[in-house]
Amino acid sequence: MFDTLSDRLSGIFTKLRGKGRLSDADIDATAREIRLALLEADVALPVVKAFIANVKERARGAEVSQALNPAQQVIKIVHEELVAILGGEARRLQFAKQPPTVIMLAGLQGSGKTTLAGKLARWLKAQGHQPLLVAADLQRPNAVGQLQVLGGRAGVEVYAPEPGNGVGDPVRVARDSIEHAKRAARDIVIVDTAGRLGIDAEMMAQAASIRDAVQPDEVVFVIDAMVGQDAVTTAEAFRDGVGITGVVLSKLDGDARGGAALSVRHVTGQPILFASTGEKLEDFDVFHPDRMASRILG
Ligand code: GDP
User: Fold this and answer.
1) Which residue of 27, 142, 186, 233 sits 20 to 30 Å from the alpha carbon of 266, by its own alpha carbon?
2) Domain SRP54-type proteins GTP-binding, which positions (predicted)?
3) What is the pLDDT of residues 101-111, one digit of tens each?
4) Which residues line ligand 1 (CB under 6 A)?
């Protein structure tokens, strides 16, 4: 991901090498090229506008520096602005004062929610937690089976509807799972919910009902980083329909242009918590804005 954007940016910076002080015209030309590179990478227009305005303002105001030549100065500004649109500091998970902490996952079908549930459970278990996975995606055929396989691999218990008991009612499964977690002394409950291929009123209503039933400490919106401009509409719909508290970028290992990854923080106003980078349970890490910005700038 970001290969094209990285190449474009490095081409833009190369042109600045060897220049003395940058004129306003140099700064404007550079800003225009960066704007195009971001738009071609599918970054959402409002994000691009804010980004470019900041870069321009800072580049104009930049002091002549002994340590950095103009090209290095622009690179530094772009790096810092990339870190800013990615959220600044890494943000940790919010834990409940009274266990169990409830983490609800929401997102479109195929975004990588169920896979993420397994990854998160494995990661939390490795830190000494006792997570419980909850199969409240009763929409997608075999989402329950998939979660059971992942739970088995992670060595984490999966709470799933028993035949004849709450089958077809994800809200009830989710609510009952909290009671189960308390009885079984699980300190973290990860609730996988159903998504659909597109935004859908029924799906949002179900996610909102599950949220009300489990009172989550985190509502984590999982977004497939491979999607392009649609990412913005999807993110806004989940922000407004369910009320998200954090984001996970999945499929960052793909070769898409990366616009979703660069837009979602600005659009939702919520931090990116984790990054998913493959199909295996260990392809997962805390999201670091700074590392991602460095990766983009090569
Ligand atoms: P859900 O419908 O949101 O629960 O999505 P799934 O977890 O079933 O994931 C959909 C597909 O994407 C599956 O084939 C996963 O193996 C795959 N997948 C999930 N996360 C990643 C990731 O980070 N990278 C890659 N390459 N594939 C992923």
Assistant:
1) 27
2) 271-284
3) 999 999 999 99
4) 107, 109-115, 140, 195, 250-251, 253-254, 276-279, 283
